[in-house]
Design brief:
Organism (chain A): Recurvomyces mirabilis
Structural class of chain A: mainly alpha
Oligomer: heterodimer
Radius of gyration of chain A: 32 Å
Mean pLDDT of chain B: 86
Helix content of chain B: under 10%
Distance between the termini of chain B: 79 Å
Catalytic activity (chain A): a di-trans,poly-cis-dolichyl diphosphooligosaccharide + L-asparaginyl-[protein] = N(4)-(oligosaccharide-(1->4)-N-acetyl-beta-D-glucosaminyl-(1->4)-N-acetyl-beta-D-glucosaminyl)-L-asparaginyl-[protein] + a di-trans,poly-cis-dolichyl diphosphate + H(+)
Strand content of chain A: under 5%
CATH architecture of one domain in chain A: 3-Layer(aba) Sandwich
Number of domains of chain B: 2
Shape of chain B: globular
Number of helices of chain B: 3
Number of strands of chain A: 8
Number of helices of chain A: 33
GO molecular function (chain A): dolichyl-diphosphooligosaccharide-protein glycotransferase activity; metal ion binding
CATH class of one domain in chain A: Alpha Beta
Mean pLDDT of chain A: 85
Membrane topology (chain A): Multi-pass membrane protein
Keywords (chain A): Endoplasmic reticulum, Glycoprotein, Glycosyltransferase, Magnesium, Manganese, Membrane, Metal-binding, Transferase, Transmembrane, Transmembrane helix
Number of strands of chain B: 33
CATH topology of one domain in chain A: Rossmann fold
CATH topology of the largest domain in chain B: Immunoglobulin-like
Low-confidence stretches of chain A: 1-9, 450-466
Low-confidence stretches of chain B: 1-26
Largest sheet of chain B: 8 strands, mixed
Chain lengths: 766, 493
C-alpha cells in the first residue's frame, strides 16, 4: 500500500515522481479501490453460489413485493398504495408507512437497464443491490477516511475493512434486500459530505449533504442517527470554542434543506418539527444562529464583559428553549420519545412495556463476543484510532470521537445497531493501522536526526514526492508535548520486518475470519435450509417454498392465511395470499388477537378465526427435523403479547408446569395441550412413529401416546419435512352443532346427556 | 374461448410470415346448414383408444359419392362445445397413406347452431359412384371425468368417458361399429345397449379383454346419436396444460439455441376427499402404488442439451435431475409438491443446445439458413399430457428477414414482431405461432423456419456498442473540460 517509496535509481522510478507519479498513484488507487469493491461484492455472494439468487429472511420479502408493485404500477400508485392483502381486515396504508428509498432505487436501476434493453429480472436487481452498494460504501469510507487522515494508506485500508467486515456483511449479503442495504452507504457518504462541508464551508457541500440526507431519510429509519449526530458535532464544536463561519454555513444549509427534503417522505412528514427525536437538530439550529449573532457582535464590540454577558444569555436562551421543549412535549404538541427510543436507554424497558419489540432477536442487547465476531481485530484497533484522533484534534477528528462514543453505546444496547458502529470502527482502525504501516513500511533508513529536526516542523508541502516522513511529521501537531521530540523513524530492518510481518499476519487472519463468518453465519437465506447427505452432497430442505407455493397455486386468490407475524411478509411475497398480521407490527392488538387465537382452546379460537374470515392457518413445526426456529419455541411470545391485551383470558403461568418448566410431553399443562398451537403442531404427528414412540427432536422430549385432536380445523397440507403445516378452518356445521359435537357424532359416541337433565329425577305419574 | 375465430392453415403449408398473412378460410354458415347428402358412408369402423388421459379416435370410413357430379367436400359433425376440445384432426387416405393434399377446416356456423362441422377437402374431387377410404384421427381433450369426483388419497380412480355409440357423421352410414381400447380390465360400468339395435342381434357391447366393441349397426341416418358411457379404472393423473409458452432463441454469435418453456399445468384427476395427508403420502412412498397424483415430469431433450434450469414463480426448484450422456439427455423434474387432482402447478424450464444441431445453411444461398426445432417439447408422460394452447415463439437474430416456416401441427395464428433485448437497436425478429388442443404425442413434430441473415446484420451490435461507448467517452471528455465555476478562475495560466 504505502510502498511507493522506492529506490530512486530503479528504472520504474519515473512512474513515481512528479506529475507522472501523481497520475500513477491515482491510477493505482483507482485500481485498488475497484479491487476492494470487487472483493466486497464477491464476498457477499456465498448464498447465491451455494443456493440461488433468492431474497432472504423476512423483511426483504416485503421490500421485494413493494418493489414489484412499484415497477408494475408506477411511482404515483406506489405512493398511494393501500394494501388490502395484509392486516386483514384492516389493510395497511403501505405507501405512507414505508421508507421508499430502497424500492425507488431498485426501480430506477430496473428502468435504466430496461432502457438499455437489458432484460434483467427485478429479483436479480433486488438480490444484488446490497452487494453493489457495499462496493460503493467501501468507496465512501475511503473518501471519509481520507478526510480524516493525511496518510495515503488510511483511506484504502478503511475501504478494505469496510468492504469485508462481517458487521456490515451481516446486513448486506446478496439477497438481504433490506433498507440497510443502501442506508449504510448513504450514512457514510452523508458523513463524508458533512465533513467536507465543515472543512470547506461551502453551500454546495452543505447542499449535497442535505441531498444525501434526504435520500437517507427516504431509505431507512436510522436516519435519526444522522439527525442527532450532526447537531451534536456542531454543538460540541461550539462548546469547544470552534465556532466558525464554515460551521455556520454548512450547518444551516444542511438543516434547512435537509429538513425540507426529509419532510417530503410521507412516513416522516412533520416529524422533524414535531417529535422529540428531531428536536436537537432544531435546537442547535437556533443555537447556531445565536452564536453566529454573538460572534458578529463580538466582531463589532471587542469587549470581554460583553462577551461573557452574551455567553450567559446564550445559556439562558438555551435553557428557555429546552424548558419550552419539555413543556411542549408534556402538553403533547411535540410527540414524546418513541418506545423504541426508550429501549435504547433502558434495555429492560421493552421487555416490560412492549413485548413485541423485545420478541425480535435483533433488538436484544449485544453479547460481548458479538463485537469480536463482527469486527475481529478492528475492535482492538478502534480505541487506538480514536486515541489518535485526540492527538490531532481538528473539526473532523472531533466528529470521529463523537461518532465513536455514541455508536459504541448504541451497539452495546441493540444487536442491530452494530451496523452503525461498523463504519466508524473501520475508519478509526484504518487510521491506527495506517500509522503503523507508514512508520514501519518505509524501506529506506531514515536520514540523520540532525537533518530531520529542521524538517520536523515543516508543513506537508514537499514538492510532490511522497516523502513519508514529512507527512508523518506534519500529522503530529506541535502542541502535544510528547511529540515535541522529532520523529526519526525506524532504523532496524529486523523490527521493520517483524512489525510488518505481524501486521500482515493480522490482516490475513482478519480476511480469513471475515470469510469464515460470512460463509458460516450470514449467508443462509433462512427460507431454504441446507443439509448434507451421508455422501457429502448438499441436500436442500425447501419446505417453506413448497408450502408457500402450494398456497399460491391451490387456494383461492383471496384466501386469508393466519400465521404468527414472522411469516406474514413471506406469505405475502411467496404465497401471494392475504395475511392477518405481518412483520410490520404496527398494530399490537391485532397481533395479540392472533396470539390469543393460537394460545387458546379451540372453542375460543374458532370464533376469532371466523370473525377474521380466516381460511387457512399456517404453523411452523420443527419437531421432525430438529429445526429450532419453530412456532412452539416462539409460542411464549404469542402468549405474552396476548396476555398484554387480555390478561384475564391468557396467562403465561398456565403454560408452565407446577415446577415452572415449559414442556410439551405428558407433563405439559392442560392449557398447553389444549392450545390451538400445540394441537396444530402435533396433530397426526404420532402416526409417523410406532405407537408411543413419537419424539420431538427440537424439545428432545417424548410426546404423549395419544396425539391431540382437532375439531374446528382440518389438515390441508404438510410439507415434506413437516416444517410447515397448513390447516383449513372448517365451515360452520350444516346442522348447527358445534364442531366438537359433530366430531363426536361422526365417531359414533353417544351424546352426553348430562347437560340435558335438569333437577332431580321425578317419578312419572300417568 | 371462442373458437370461431380460428383459421386453420393447411396441414402442410408453407406460409409466408413476413407479410403477416394467415392462411384463412372463413365460411360462415347459417345455423340451418346441413351438408348436402353427396356422400354415403359405406362402412365405418371407429377406434377409440382410452389408454392415455385423452381419448384418441380413429375413424376409418369408406365413403362413396352418391351424387351425379364429382364432389370434393366431406363434412364431419361435432356437438357444439365439443369441437373446441378436439385437436390434432388429421385425414389420410387409408389405401395410400403418402397421398397428401387433404385440407381440414373448421366451418364457422353462427352461434345458435347445435352442431358444428369440420370440412375435409379432398385433394381431388371424388367422381360419382366412386369410393374412397378415409382415415380420420383426432384427439378429444378434457373428455374424461373422474367418477366419483372425490376420492381418498390412496384410492383407485375411475374415469367416465361418455360418447356416442354411433360415429359422428353428416351422412347416412350403412354399416358401422365402434371399438374401445381400454387400459385395464377393471370396468365397473359400461352402458349396455339393447340387442335389437345391434345388426347381429348380439349382446352390445362385446367385451374381449381390454377391448369393447359397440355394434355393428345397420343403416343409420345422418346425425344419429346413441349416448353410451364407460367407467374404468384409470389411477393416473389427468395432466392438463392450460397454456404452454415456448421460446426458442437463436444466437449466431453465441452458436447457441436457448429453449425455454413455461408451463401452467393442472391435474384434472379426482380431488381429494379429505385433505392431503403427509403421513399417508410418506407411507405410500415405500411401495409406490399407482396414484392419480403427478409426482414427476420427464423431459427427454435433444442430445447435447446443457445448462438446464427448473424454476417457478418463487425461485429455483432443487428437486430436479439432469442426466446427459452421448445417447440421451433427460431432465427429470419433481414439482415442489405432488400434484393431486384439482391442484395446479406452474413452472419454467429452460436449456441450451448447440446451434449446429438445429441450423443448416442453405446450399447455394450464402445468407439463408434453415432452422429445424421441435414445435414444442414438454414432459413425456406415460399417461399423456394435453395442452389447451401452445404458443411457440422463435426469436431469430437481429436483422433476420424473409422468414418462412412450415410445420405439420395445425396452427391457429402466426405473427411476426420485433423483440428487443440485450442492447438491440432494431430488435430481433420473432415469430409467434399458436396452436390449440395439442397432445404430447405431437412433441416430435418439427417446425422448420427458413430465414435470411445478411452478413452486415451480424456486425450491427458490436459497431453500435463501440459507437455508443465512444460517444460516452467523448461526452465525458467534453464535460470534463467545461469550466462551470462561478467565481474567478483560481488557476493562473
Amino acid at each position: 500500500m504505502a510502498v511507493t517509496a522506492t529506490n530512486s535509481d530503479s528504472p520504474t522510478s519515473i512512474f513515481f515522481k512528479g506529475e507522472t507519479g501523481r497520475n500513477t498513484r491515482g491510477l493505482l488507487r483507482l485500481i485498488i479501490l475497484c479491487t476492494i469493491a470487487a472483493a466486497a461484492v464477491a464476498s457477499r455472494l456465498f448464498s447465491v453460489i451455494r443456493f440461488e439468487s433468492i431474497i432472504h429472511e423476512f423483511d426483504p420479502w416485503f421490500n421485494f413485493r413493494a418493489t414489484k408493485y412499484l415497477i408494475q404500477h408506477g411511482f404515483y400508485n406506489f405512493w398511494d398504495w393501500f394494501d388490502d392483502r395484509t392486516w386483514h381486515p384492516l389493510g395497511r396504508v403501505t405507501g405512507g408507512t414505508l421508507y421508499p428509498g430502497l424500492m425507488v432505487t431498485s426501480g430506477a436501476i430496473y428502468h435504466f437497464l430496461r432502457f438499455l434493453t437489458l432484460p434483467v429480472d427485478i429479483r436479480n436487481i433486488c438480490v444484488l443491490l446490497a452487494p453493489a452498494f457495499s462496493g460503493l460504501t467501501a468507496f465512501a469510507t475511503y473518501l471519509l477516511t481520507s478526510e480524516m487522515s493525511d496518510s495515503p494508506s488510511a483511506g484504502l485500508l478503511a475501504a478494505c475493512f469496510m468492504g469485508i467486515t462481517p458487521g456490515y456483511i451481516s446486513r448486506s449479503v446478496a439477497g438481504s434486500y433490506d433498507n440497510e442495504a443502501i442506508a449504510i452507504f448513504l450514512l457514510v457518504f452523508t458523513f463524508y459530505l458533512w465533513i467536507k462541508a465543515v472543512k470547506v464551508g461551502s453551500v454546495m457541500w452543505g447542499g449535497l449533504t442535505a441531498l444525501f440526507y434526504g435520500y437517507m431519510v427516504s431509505a431507512w429509519g436510522g436516519y435519526v442517527f444522522i439527525t442527532n449526530l450532526i447537531p451534536l458535532h456542531a454543538f460540541v464544536l461550539i462548546c469547544m470554542g470552534r465556532f466558525s463561519p464554515r460551521l455556520y454555513v454548512s450547518y444551516t444549509t444542511w438543516y434547512a434543506l435537509g429538513t425540507l427534503a426529509s419532510m417530503q417522505i410521507p412516513f416522516v412528514g412533520f416529524l422533524p418539527i414535531r417529535s422529540s427525536d428531531h428536536m436537537s437538530a432544531l435546537g442547535i439550529f437556533g443555537l447556531i444562529q445565536l452564536v453566529g449573532f454573538t460572534e458578529y457582535i463580538r466582531a463589532q464590540l471587542p469587549s470581554k464583559q460583553f462577551q461573557t454577558l452574551l455567553r450567559a444569555m446564550v445559556l439562558i436562551v438555551f435553557g428557555v428553549a429546552f424548558g419550552g421543549l419539555v413543556l411542549l412535549t408534556v402538553s403533547g404538541t411535540i410527540a414524546p420519545w418513541s418506545g423504541r427510543f426508550y429501549s435504547l436507554w433502558d434495555t429492560g424497558y421493552a421487555k416490560i412495556h412492549i413485548p413485541i419489540i423485545a420478541s425480535v432477536s435483533e433488538h436484544q442487547p449485544t453479547a460481548w463476543p458479538a463485537f469480536f465476531f463482527d469486527l475481529n481485530m478492528l475492535i482492538w484497533l478502534f480505541p487506538a484510532g480514536v486515541y489518535m484522533c485526540f492527538r490531532n484534534l481538528r473539526d473532523e477528528q472531533v466528529f470521529v470521537v463523537i461518532y465513536a462514543v455514541l455508536s459504541s453505546y448504541f451497539a452495546g444496547v441493540m444487536v442491530r445497531l452494530m451496523l452503525t458502529l461498523t463504519p466508524i470502527v473501520c475508519v478509526a482502525a484504518a487510521m491506527a493501522l495506517s500509522q503503523i504501516l507508514d512508520t514501519f513500511l518505509v524501506a529506506e533508513a531514515p536520514a540523520e536526526p540532525s537533518g530531520d529536526a529542521t524538517k520536523a516542523n515543516g508543513s506537508a508541502s514537499s514538492n510532490g514526492s511522497a516523502n513519508i516522513k514529512d507527512k508523518l511529521n506534519s500529522a503530529i501537531p506541535e502542541s502535544l508535548r510528547s511529540t515535541k521530540a522529532p520523529l526519526v523513524g525506524i532504523y532496524s530492518y529486523l523490527s521493520k520486518s517483524l512489525t510488518a510481518g505481524a501486521v500482515t499476519a493480522y490482516l490475513l487472519l482478519f480476511v480469513l475470519h471475515c470469510t469464515w463468518v460470512t460463509s458460516n453465519a450470514y449467508s443462509s437465506p433462512s427460507v431454504v435450509l441446507a443439509s448434507r447427505l451421508p455422501d457429502g452432497s448438499q441436500h436442500i430442505i425447501d419446505d417453506y417454498r413448497e408450502a408457500y407455493y402450494w398456497l399460491r397455486q391451490n387456494t383461492k386468490q383471496d384466501a386469508k392465511v393466519m400465521s404468527w407475524w414472522d411469516y406474514g411478509y413471506q406469505i405475502g411475497g411467496m404465497a401471494d395470499r392475504p395475511t392477518l398480521v405481518d412483520n410490520n407490527t404496527w398494530n399490537n392488538t391485532h397481533i395479540a388477537t392472533v396470539g390469543k387465537a393460537m394460545s387458546s382452546r379451540e372453542e375460543v379460537s374458532y370464533p376469532i378465526m371466523r370473525q377474521h374470515e380466516v381460511d387457512y392457518v399456517l404453523v411452523v413445526f420443527g419437531g421432525l427435523l430438529g429445526y429450532s426456529g419453530d412456532d412452539i419455541n416462539k409460542f411464549l411470545w404469542m402468549v405474552r403479547i396476548a396476555e398484554g391485551i387480555w390478561p384475564d383470558e391468557v396467562k403465561e403461568r398456565d403454560f408452565f408446569t407446577a415446577r415452572g418448566e415449559y414442556r410439551v410431553d405428558d407433563e405439559a399443562t392442560p392449557t398447553m395441550k389444549n392450545s390451538l398451537m400445540y394441537k396444530m403442531s402435533y396433530y397426526n404427528y404420532n402416526s409417523l412413529f410406532p405407537a408411543g414412540q413419537a419424539q420431538d427432536r427440537v424439545r428432545g422430549s417424548k410426546l404423549p401416546a395419544t396425539g391431540p385432536e382437532l375439531s374446528t380445523l382440518e389438515e390441508a397440507f404438510t410439507s415434506e419435512n413437516w416444517i410447515i403445516r397448513i390447516y383449513k378452518v372448517k365451515d360452520l356445521d350444516n346442522l348447527g352443532r358445534t364442531h366438537q359435537e359433530a366430531g363426536a357424532f361422526g365417531k359414533g359416541n353417544k351424546r352426553k346427556k348430562g347437560g340435558k337433565r335438569r333437577g332431580a329425577r321425578v317419578l312419572r305419574v300417568d | 374461448m371462442r373458437l370461431f375465430n380460428w383459421a386453420l392453415v393447411a396441414l402442410t403449408s408453407l406460409a409466408s410470415a413476413d407479410s403477416n398473412l394467415t392462411h384463412e378460410s372463413r365460411n360462415i354458415l347459417p345455423s340451418t346448414f346441413k351438408p348436402a347428402q353427396h356422400f354415403r358412408n359405406v362402412n365405418l369402423v371407429r377406434n377409440i383408444n382410452l389408454e392415455k388421459s385423452f381419448p384418441r379416435e380413429t375413424i376409418n370410413v369408406v365413403i362413396e359419392n352418391i351424387d351425379n357430379a364429382p364432389q370434393q367436400e366431406y363434412f364431419l359433425p361435432f356437438e357444439q362445445g365439443s369441437i373446441g376440445r378436439v385437436g390434432g384432426l388429421e385425414v389420410k387416405d387409408k389405401k395410400e397413406p403418402e397421398r397428401t393434399g387433404f385440407v381440414v377446416d373448421v366451418v364457422e356456423v353462427d352461434p345458435y347452431s347445435t352442431t358444428e362441422y369440420y370440412k375435409i377437402t379432398l385433394p381431388t374431387p371424388l367422381p360419382s359412384k366412386q369410393q374412397l377410404t378415409l382415415s380420420i384421427t383426432y384427439y378429444a381433450l378434457s373428455a374424461l371425468t373422474p367418477l366419483p369426483a372425490q376420492i381418498g388419497q390412496t384410492d383407485k380412480q375411475y374415469v367416465l368417458h361418455t360418447f356416442s355409440a354411433y360415429a359422428p357423421s353428416a351422412y347416412t352410414t350403412s354399416k358401422q361399429k365402434t371399438k374401445l381400447k381400454l387400459p385395464t380390465v377393471d370396468v365397473p360400468d359400461a352402458t349396455t345397449l339393447p340387442p335389437e339395435l345391434n345388426a347381429e342381434g348380439k349382446e352390445d357391447p362385446q367385451k374381449q379383454g381390454t377391448s369393447f366393441t359397440y355394434g355393428p349397426y345397420n343403416e343409420l341416418p345422418a346425425g344419429a346419436v346413441q349416448e353410451v358411457s364407460v367407467r374404468y379404472d384409470f389411477t393416473k393423473p389427468l395432466v392438463h396444460g392450460k397454456l404452454l409458452e415456448r421460446d426458442v432463441e437463436v444466437s449466431h454469435w453465441g452458436n447457441n439455441v436457448a429453449f425455454e418453456e413455461r408451463h401452467w399445468l393442472t391435474n384434472r384427476a379426482a380431488t381429494l376427499k379429505n385433505h392431503f395427508s403427509r403421513v399417508t403420502y410418506a407411507q405410500s412412498a415405500y411401495y409406490n402404488p399407482p396414484s392419480s397424483a403427478l409426482k414427476e415430469l420427464r423431459f427427454p431433450l435433444a442430445v447435447g442439451s446443457a445448462d438446464p434450469y427448473f424454476v417457478d414463480d418463487i425461485g429455483n426448484v432443487s428437486t430436479s435431475r439432469f442426466r446427459s450422456n452421448m445417447r440421451e439427455a433427460n431432465l427429470e423434474l419433481k414439482p415442489r409438491y405432488p400434484i393431486f387432482g384439482g391442484w395446479n402447478y406452474s413452472f419454467k424450464v429452460g436449456w441450451n443446445s448447440d446451434l449446429k444441431e438445429f441450423l443448416r445453411r442453405v446450399k447455394g444461398a450464402s445468407n439463408t439458413y434453415v432452422l429445424k426445432v421441435p414445435f414444442f417439447e414438454g414432459p413425456k408422460q406415460a399417461e399423456g399430457v394435453e395442452y389447451e394452447r401452445v404458443v411457440t415463439r422463435i426469436i431469430l437474430p437481429e436483422g433476420a428477414k424473409n422468414i418462412k416456416f412450415s410445420t405439420t401441427i395445425t396452427l391457429t395464428s402466426n405473427t411476426t414482431s420485433l423483440h428487443r433485448t440485450f442492447m438491440d437497436t432494431m430488435g430481433r425478429t420473432s415469430l409467434e405461432l399458436t396452436a390449440l388442443n395439442v397432445v404430447d404425442e405431437f412433441r416430435e413434430r418439427d417446425l422448420v423456419v427458413t430465414y435470411e441473415y445478411p452478413f452486415s446484420a451480424r456486425f450491427r451490435k458490436p459497431l453500435v456498442i463501440f459507437g455508443g461507448l465512444m460517444a460516452v467517452f467523448a461526452v465525458s471528455w467534453v464535460l470534463g473540460n467545461l469550466d462551470v465555476s462561478i467565481g474567478r478562475k483560481q488557476k493562473s495560466v
